[in-house]
Amino acid sequence: MLDRLHRIGFRALWCCRAVLAVLLALPLGGCGKQATAAPHSASPAVSPAASPPASPSLVVSQSPSTHAQPAGMGQAPLKAAPTTAPSLLASQPGVTSSALPAPFLLHLPGIAGARAIDNHMTVGFSQGGFKGDVQIYDWTEQDGGLDALLANKRNHLEAKKIADLLAARFDKDPTAPIYLSCHSGGAGLAVWALEQLPDRVKIKSILMMSPALSPSYDLTPALRHVSGSLFVFSSLEDQLVLGLGCRTAGTIDGVHTDAAGRVGFKMPATGDATQYAKVVPMPYNPEWIRLGDRGDHIGAMNQRFARVVLAPLVLSGTIPPDTADKVAILAAQSLQATNRK
């Protein structure tokens, strides 16, 4: 009887792992190292002499000339890449105004590590009007999947590296805005990094796409370092990864429950209502399917969605009133392209 129960339990765990692997585009090998994500463009790799060393987990850095200067909601600074970071794989040179400080976007991927979806999101962000440096920091050390989910000690050490990176950007130019975005398990690293920032350091705003944090995690210490808003994109349709997956394997903070990326955050008894006023829930809107967001675990990482919704939201604090028109135009263009094939 015990053997049969063990076999059933093993099969259930394997099925959960398989679901996570498929949805996060992971190899089922789990413990194997994964290739680092490709840079956004075909820019040549930066030689050590051409730029300061970057963190071993720093996957992509770009200063795209196609970005547009943010009209921000209000604060946080930035600084040039810290000299303590070791592996800058690619960089796109860009032209920024000498009159305005260049903004900085740091993106933290999910437990799969830096993947194509992260490149798509950051490219869309740039196309949507962001003019400044964009970096994807792979905190998984190319050891993604359940290994990354359960590596609590390593994840907190990585969060400290991220905090040091943010502090360095801030100290380089306290007038330049810093933005933070994260997907799935990356939300845990984002929150833990903010908690470790010095009191003087503030970032402007955060985007959380499908955060794999427990709903009652106290965001208060992290929110003290946010001068603008924390936008939380959630979807009840994310049943497999943030529902079944997190109930079985746990959230990034180790709680077996549906994650905040499915049901939203709830202020705990220890929370500060003043800080939680910065949290802006962004539950799934079925109309977003026209922008490529199907409400699943990676829907909000779609390039079109990032261009039309995410970038304007962060830069202005609101979704443009003409978003519906843009959705219709994009749908028509997509249909025309399909008909031409």
Structure description:
The chain has 341 residues and is of the alpha/beta class. The protein has a single domain (2-340), classed as Alpha/Beta hydrolase fold, catalytic domain (Rossmann fold). The chain is built from 11 helices and 9 strands. The chain has helices at residues 2-23, 116-127, 146-150, 152-172, 186-195, 220-223, 240-249, 260-263, 273-276, 303-316, 323-340, and strands at residues 54-55, 58-62, 85-86, 104-108, 133-137, 178-183, 205-209, 230-234, 279-283. The strands form 2 sheets. Strands 2-5-4-6-7-8-9 form a 7-stranded mixed sheet, sandwiched between helices. The protein has a two-stranded parallel ribbon with strand order 1-3. Helix 5 links the parallel strand 6 (178-183) and strand 7 (205-209). The longest helix is centred in the first third of the chain and has 22 residues, at 2-23. It is globular. The chain starts with a helix and ends with a helix.
Report a brief summary of the structure.
This protein has 341 residues and is of the alpha/beta class.
Write the layout of secondary structure elements.
Elements: H1 2-23, E1 54-55, E2 58-62, E3 85-86, E4 104-108, H2 116-127, E5 133-137, H3 146-150, H4 152-172, E6 178-183, H5 186-195, E7 205-209, H6 220-223, E8 230-234, H7 240-249, H8 260-263, H9 273-276, E9 279-283, H10 303-316, H11 323-340
The CA-CA distance between the termini, in Å, is 58 Å
Strand content: 5-15%
Rg over CA atoms: 19 Å
Low-confidence stretches: 17-98
| Sheet with most strands | 7 strands, mixed
Q: Please bin the fraction of helical residues.
A: 25-40%
CATH architecture classification: 3-Layer(aba) Sandwich
User: What's the average pLDDT?
Assistant: 76
Superfamily (CATH H level) name: Alpha/Beta hydrolase fold, catalytic domain
Order of helices and strands: HEEEEHEHHEHEHEHHHEHH
- What's the CATH class, please? Alpha Beta
Helix tally equals: 11
Find the count of extended strands (DSSP E, 2+ residues). Answer: 9
- Total domains: 1
The CATH topology comes to: Rossmann fold
Strand order of the largest sheet: 2-5-4-6-7-8-9
- Choose one word for the global shape: globular
Structural class comes to alpha/beta
